[in-house]
Design goal:
The complex is a heterodimer of chains A (303) and B (269). Chain A is mainly α. Chain A is 76% helix and 0% strand. Chain B is an alpha/beta fold and 269 residues long. Classes of the chains: A mainly alpha (303), B alpha/beta (269).
């Protein structure tokens, strides 16, 4: 747990944890609003967004990617609304229709465009590159206090830290409004809660979380973290505050355990190579949900 | 209530009784897509009365309330609460939606739901304090649900859930209470308890409006009735308005005459 850990494992671990928490937080409210699929939809449409951003700008630097992904998320949400209203399709089907179409279009675009020179492929989009987000400039724990070494942190880390903090603040400041409008939207409107605005803000935050996390860890973790920790947390308690707390705990446990198992698990089992950390984190999150379904105290009361 | 009466004279609205009314609805229409749910309804609910909104299924009873409160967008119409636009009088109104309109599996305890009624008093960002909890508990006591305060709302019976909704409305300490089918699917004891509380509220000078589906109890529980079927059929005191003729008109002959006469005769019982 010395210099090597700080250099090779600390930043991927932190990035994994922050990605998981950033997605799990809004996931709680999406789940209770029966909109869990929207996280799924947004994380899929991020792919065509970044491909288009790459085709337009010719680079894979962070900002064009983030903007492209953000724009795609907005387009997807508008398309879902349009399909719902024009086609009179129920919301779940409208989401499924839009995100699969856009994701498929993204894959086609990716295959047809010349991305061989840069690190942009389907594998990367699904699994991210968590293991490669190492901290070259670190020489040990002391580097945490060394401004020069800190400047060399992978940019995903501060970005995700800001996003997670912003989501946490949003939930803290608008807690009562979110709770009331999620439970009883009609009542919420009569007492002056701007329910539509709040619902829109929640979707925008979901998109920001998805885009920020996608860049670091790929879409598999993002989709898993929107749903698994909140769903498992719902089975642990009948109180909203505690549910959110449990979901954060489950997200952290999934990220840490998943990262460690991906790196060392196969070796312990005698295999030669480690497996994808993102895939393992998502798997652990699924296993936690499975255990919660079998053993959690409130498992009889789920909707 | 003819439209001509509503024409503004030198910029002032002619007083057609809406200044003194707890709730005044003028020309309210609501539609879902191309389907009209409420068509050009006028209603004036005087202060301190208890009104039943009555009509067949799909007559627009719930939509009338929702349209009046801006829960669903309205196509047309003006609504005033105590002579002011609803937005300026929100704090004086308590609305109870249909029990089935919410997900009772939501992670909340009984007390948490009642505290939602104190939302405006607690204020932005702040959490409920001891005083708010005491108020919420007092409201739960009024509906005999204090012992269930810590219970998860999904573990309650339908009647108990309806009482919790009523307690939330009481916590709002409003002057006008609008309830959508507060007696739907509740047991007899709960029905008596809810009506007793609403009559207390009325006795305190507040105004109560309920969407009501049981014609046999209209005359017993309410003093006014608003009969609607897409548009308004009649409104007024139960004695003069809850008549065989008006009921036949409202229900389009779907009620057996003998039954209707029995109901209308039962008034004042």
């Amino acid at each position: 747990m010395g210099a090597e850990f700080v250099q090779l494992s600390l930043t991927p671990l932190l990035i994994g944890v922050l990605s998981a928490v950033a997605c799990a937080l809004p996931g709680n409210f999406l789940l209770l609003r029966r909109q869990a699929l929207i996280g799924d939809a947004i994380s899929h449409v991020v792919l065509p967004g970044i491909v288009v951003a790459f085709l337009v700008t010719g680079t894979v630097t962070a900002w064009p990617m983030m903007l492209g992904a953000g724009a795609a998320a907005i387009v997807a949400v508008l398309m879902i609304e349009a399909v719902k209203r024009l086609g009179r399709v129920e919301p779940g089907a409208a989401m499924g229709l839009v995100f699969t179409t856009l994701f498929a279009a993204g894959v086609l675009l990716l295959e047809q465009s010349d991305t061989s020179a840069v690190h942009l492929d389907v594998e990367h989009a699904l699994n991210g590159n968590l293991e490669s987000l190492i901290w070259f400039d670190a020489t040990g724990w002391g580097s945490l206090l060394d401004p020069q070494a800190l400047a060399g942190l992978p940019p995903q880390l501060p970005r995700l830290a800001i996003v997670t903090l912003a989501i946490g603040l949003f939930l803290a400041l608008l807690w009562k409004e979110l709770a009331i409008s999620t439970f009883d939207a009609a009542f919420a409107r009569t007492v002056g809660v701007p329910t539509r605005l709040l619902g829109g803000a929640l979707v925008v935050l979901t998109a920001i979380a998805a885009v920020a996390a996608f860049d670091a860890v790929g879409s598999i973790i993002v989709i898993a973290m929107f749903v698994c920790p909140p769903a498992a947390a719902r089975l642990m308690t009948d109180r909203l505050g505690r549910q959110v707390a449990w979901s954060v705990l489950f997200a952290i446990v999934s990220a840490v355990l998943g990262y460690v198992l991906a790196g060392y698990g196969p070796v312990w089992l005698g295999a030669a190579n480690s497996v994808s950390a993102a895939g393992m984190i998502a798997t652990v999150a699924g296993v936690i949900l499975w255990i919660a379904c079998l053993a959690a105290p409130r498992r009889s009361r789920t909707g | 209530m003819a439209p001509v009466e509503l024409i503004a004279r030198s910029g002032e609205l002619v007083d057609d009784g809406r200044k003194d009314a707890a709730l005044a609805i003028r020309g309210l229409s609501v539609s879902y897509g191309a389907k009209a749910a409420v068509f050009s309804v006028d209603a004036t609910l005087p202060l301190g009365t208890m009104t039943a909104i009555v009509g067949p299924n799909g007559a627009g009873k719930s939509s009338l309330l929702k349209g009046a409160l801006g829960v669903v967008p309205r196509l047309s119409g003006e609504v005033t609460v105590f002579g002011r636009p609803f937005k300026e009088a929100r704090h004086r109104v308590a609305y109870v939606p249909q029990r089935a309109s919410v997900d009772w599996d939501f992670p909340a305890r009984v007390i948490d739901v009642v505290l939602m009624g104190l939302y405006r008093k607690i204020g932005w960002v702040r959490l409920a304090g001891r005083k708010h909890r005491e108020t919420a508990m007092a409201c739960l006591e009024r509906v005999n649900m204090a012992e269930f305060a810590e219970r998860q709302i999904g573990q309650l019976s339908g009647g108990q859930q309806q009482r919790v909704f009523l307690a939330r409305a009481l916590a709002q300490d409003a002057d006008l209470y609008l309830l959508d089918e507060p007696l739907a699917g509740v047991d007899a004891a709960t029905e008596r308890a809810i009506i007793a509380v609403l009559q207390e509220v009325k006795a305190a000078g507040r105004t109560v409006v309920c969407v009501h589906h049981d014609l046999s109890t209209v005359a017993q529980y309410f003093d006014r009735v608003l009969l609607i079927n897409l548009s308004k059929v009649a409104e007024g005191p139960v004695e003069t308005t809850f008549t065989v003729e008006n009921l036949q008109h409202t229900y389009g002959g779907r009620l057996a005459t003998a039954h209707v006469e029995e109901l209308a005769l039962g008034r004042g019982a």
